[in-house]
Amino acid sequence: MASHPNRRILLATRPDGRARQSDFELVETAIPAPKEGEVLLRNTLISMDPYQRNLMGNGSSELPPMELGTPMSGPTVAIVEESHNPDFAKGDYVQTWTGWQDYAISDGSDLRTLDPGMAPLSTALGVLGHTGLTAWVGMTKYLDDMPGGTFVVSAAAGSVGSMVAQMAKLRDHRVVGIAGGARKIAYLRDEIGVDAAVDYKADDFEAQLARALPDGVDRFFDNVGDYMFEAVMPHFNLNAQAVICGTIAGYSDTGLPDRRDHLPRLLNLILYRFIQVRGFSILDHLDSYPAFLEEVAPWVTAGRIKYREEFIEDFERIPETFLTLFEGGNTGKLIARVG
Amino acid sequence: MASHPNRRILLATRPDGRARQSDFELVETAIPAPKEGEVLLRNTLISMDPYQRNLMGNGSSELPPMELGTPMSGPTVAIVEESHNPDFAKGDYVQTWTGWQDYAISDGSDLRTLDPGMAPLSTALGVLGHTGLTAWVGMTKYLDDMPGGTFVVSAAAGSVGSMVAQMAKLRDHRVVGIAGGARKIAYLRDEIGVDAAVDYKADDFEAQLARALPDGVDRFFDNVGDYMFEAVMPHFNLNAQAVICGTIAGYSDTGLPDRRDHLPRLLNLILYRFIQVRGFSILDHLDSYPAFLEEVAPWVTAGRIKYREEFIEDFERIPETFLTLFEGGNTGKLIARVG
């Protein structure tokens, strides 16, 4: 067993607004000992994701936040170091949710065994993990397939958005991707292969959008909400369908934007154009992993779905790297290789 | 064949805003003659409905308006006066869409034969017609059944709303009805039998609403939109579902209400509470009439679903009676008995 101590990055304080370095605390503890039925896990890959901000509390999530003083919660890939559970052997790789620490104990119920021969293990945190499952479930369970229809994706250069855009292409939709800045637009055009890319940071965003949507919008996979949804919604065709998979701001009942109220207009569109707008919980669909992997893993290994990962090698730098997610600059899934 | 001429009330002008008496013109023409395969229909019951305003044009509907100079479009019950179509016999009663006139020709494709022994013929225009089908389709096809859950209906004293409220009770939901004014609230409590009735015209509307929703909202059948939806939406539970079946205002892209923007808040609720909001077209569900009647007609004939009708006997008064719909005073389905 490794001799170095068990490093853990704890949630020290709940952020008020944007998270800061001082919200985290690095501590070193003993390596825990598994009991009968349990396994000892050592994290090898640790994911950093925007939604983790919501787990810290004082955010817009409706779910209870994680406890203060516990390791920052999040998905990981771990290796089984010691097993007292017949379902797992020493050396097995698993995808789990042990967060920002070296070692953890599990009774096995929250582990998904990985096949290192199928795809790089890091994909279990992104394109073949929760990110990919989120994209796939949103598309296949909450948007009726409509080959030939116009499919719009916002934050299309992001980890969920780029996957949705590529799956929509593979399903023969006409795909319009929205992202911010010339670099992301070039990525959408040259790498992701969208039919049209629209820059929301451009002065003529709405005109660009209108030009990209000569036949309106049939499906909208929205990772932004807010002004983005309001820009797209006038283009909804009859029977259009939208999924809300992310929003950029956590408005309370009182903290509403100081601009004219767009909600009655949306309700009219829903009424007269027979539209549906839906959210979903990925936790209701974890049993879809096999069906998801069966369809998507071959696309990933064949290079038909591209993805980007950025690695850091230094456990201590996880908090500061996580914080860069909220500056909009990074272009791939952020993963720490540890141990 | 009847000897009096064929009276027709034509759409003379498209209203700008609220419809007026001068938008209509009464003319008298010859009775048309059916050809081979056709039937001559004489209207006996003519419906007056709020959505007919949208058919007149310059409204919020996305559908093309009816043509100027043609009889005002709308649902009717007619008797077959002369038949050259083997599917219909003289004396048959049918539900059709011949609008505000005495006589019309049909090739039979738009006729639904009525059984006068099943229920009063007038119900084919309301509780057992499009009104009832709209309520039933919205409930059964667009809201998952959830016995024991809290079901909210707005405009609950109206023709669609009162039916939805009663069907929700028959499906063992806890039903909260919203309506305006003491008379409608008493009707909801005493006749419709809701579990709680909330008066949106009261000064303490939002407090009343909160008291009526101690366990939040699971299903919302909204006939109002606008401020009504905005008042109900903070109470949405996880996995709440809403159907938009009516809105009170036809907001254009530019004519948005001058108050803070509630749409980003709704998108956050959709994201974090896994909500769905949907519209639907009753025209996609006309083949559900048999299933609808099979379930609902016995409830109506047994008195388990109550409904209200108001009759006028004078064809010429149809326009002025129609216009009263927009003053909010009437309390039942408006029907003209003619011929």
From TrEMBL, chains A, B:
PANTHER family: PROSTAGLANDIN REDUCTASE (PTHR43205), PROSTAGLANDIN REDUCTASE 1 (PTHR43205:SF7). This is Alcohol dehydrogenase zinc-binding domain protein. It comes from Celeribacter indicus. Residues 7-112 form the Oxidoreductase N-terminal domain. The lineage of its organism: Bacteria, Pseudomonadati, Pseudomonadota, Alphaproteobacteria, Rhodobacterales. SUPFAM superfamilies: GroES-like, NAD(P)-binding Rossmann-fold domains. GO terms for molecular function: oxidoreductase activity, acting on the CH-CH group of donors, NAD or NADP as acceptor. It comes from the Bacteria. Residues 160-292 form the Alcohol dehydrogenase-like C-terminal domain. The keyword Oxidoreductase applies. InterPro entries: ADH-like_C, ADH_N_2, GroES-like_sf, MDR_fam, NAD(P)-bd_dom_sf. Coiled coil: none annotated. Keywords: Oxidoreductase.
